[in-house]
Write a structure and sequence with these properties.
This protein is of the alpha+beta class. It folds into 2 domains: about 5-195, Fructose-1,6-Bisphosphatase, Chain A, domain 1 (2-Layer Sandwich), CATH 3.30.540.10; about 205-330, D-Maltodextrin-Binding Protein, domain 2, CATH 3.40.190.80. Helices cover about 30% and strands about 25% of the residues. The strands form 4 sheets. Strands 4-3-5-6-7-8-9-10 form an 8-stranded mixed beta sheet, sandwiched between helices. The longest helix is centred in the first third of the chain and has 23 residues, at about 20-45. Bound molecules: 6-O-phosphono-beta-D-fructofuranose (F6P) and manganese (II) ion (MN). Manganese (II) ion binds near residues 113, 116, 246 and 280.
């Protein structure tokens, strides 16, 4: 069969199935093009002079890497002028970014984590980009932070790019989760996995175990049972993987199953989790649910959470359905 490019895939989603409109198609193409740019910058590494710190901090007080800043600029520049967005928001910017007045405005809000897994940049381990698309509320011409605070169930599209040995874009617009691999010679994303499915059961888990002493009781119980293996209550051995780039860990789970956890911990009570709800947890939850997996906060479905702040953090449990349901039931 002939390879299907992302462009063709999206045109067919629009024309043949009526699942997306022209503006959403444009939006996804623009984000994908920006991801190609980021992929090239990441791939140059030391030769591009892009490694190391930028000498600044983001709103969460994290040191920004040069590539964090560059990736943010690539996404901003690509998305400002197309006329498909009302506003955008990024992990790397304190406040939503308005579309400059010289450009037309569209009906969508775009949120992104321009370069996820920043701690891995300088050690040549996979990093990625995560994005989420919402509708701008009706009648709003100058969106503010409040207009972005919609639950994950309102997302019209979500995706991530993972910059690994190959660059892969994973996408959902609400009818399945699909994967595209970057053909570096041609410069286009090519469909490499239609309707990805996450196995319901798994024997692989992903968590930063160094936080164990800070966890709540249900979390310790769940992990204790996994670690006990064959001779414990689960009656089988489990394997652990932790890349420390959410995109890479989620991508592994989409490929062969697994459960990813970043629970709330008591190390810093002011932080209800590590991951950001709006541009990390929600888009990943949408992608995972569309692939037959589950995503919760340990207490409720992640996408049902009503956000209260743009950069809000949250506990995340996602992946193979039966494990996510089990650990969630321990928290009830
Ligand atoms: O964006 C946050 C993030 O870098 C994720 O990509 C990753 O899953 C997690 O933090 C890593 O956390 P830790 O540093 O605790 O391993
Ligand atoms: Mn991130």
């Amino acid at each position: 069969m002939k390879p299907i490019s992302l462009t063709r895939f999206l045109i067919e989603e629009q024309r043949d199935h009526g699942r997306i409109n022209a503006d959403l198609r444009l939006l996804i193409e623009v984000v994908a093009r920006a991801c190609k740019g980021i992929s090239i910058a990441v791939g140059k590494g030391a030769l591009g002079g892009v490694l190391g710190n930028a000498g600044s901090e983001n709103v969460q007080g994290e040191v920004q890497k040069k590539l964090d800043v560059l990736s943010n600029e690539i996404l901003l520049e690509a998305n400002e002028w197309g006329g498909h967005l009302a506003a955008l928001a990024s992990e790397e910017m304190d406040h939503p970014h308005a579309i400059p007045n010289r450009y037309p405005k569209g009906e969508y809000l775009l949120l992104f984590d321009p370069l996820d897994g920043s701690s891995n940049i300088d050690v040549n381990v996979s990093v990625g980009t995560i994005f989420s698309v919402l509708r701008c509320p009706e009648g709003v011409t100058a969106p503010t932070e409040a207009d972005f605070l919609q639950p994950g169930t309102q997302q019209v599209a979500a995706g991530y790019a993972v910059y690994g040995p190959s660059t892969i874009l994973v996408l959902t617009t609400g009818s399945g989760t699909h994967g595209f691999t970057l053909d570096r010679e041609v410069g286009s994303f090519v469909l490499s996995g239609r309707n990805l499915r996450i196995p319901e059961d798994t024997s692989e888990f992903a968590i930063n175990l160094s936080n164990l002493r800070h966890w709540e009781a249900p979390m310790r119980r769940y992990i204790d049972e996994l670690l006990a293996g064959k001779t414990g209550p689960r009656g089988r051995d489990f394997n652990m993987r932790w890349v420390a780039s959410m995109v890479a860990d989620v991508h592994r789970i989409l490929t062969r199953g697994g459960i990813f956890m970043y629970p709330r911990d008591l190390k810093d009570p002011s932080k209800p989790g590590r991951l950001r709800l709006m541009y990390e947890a929600n888009p990943m939850a949408f992608i995972v649910e569309q692939a037959g997996g589950a995503a919760t906060t340990g207490r409720e479905r992640l996408m049902d959470v009503q956000p209260t702040a743009l950069h809000q953090r949250i506990a995340v449990f996602l992946g193979s359905r039966n494990e996510v349901e089990r650990v969630t039931s321990y928290h009830q």
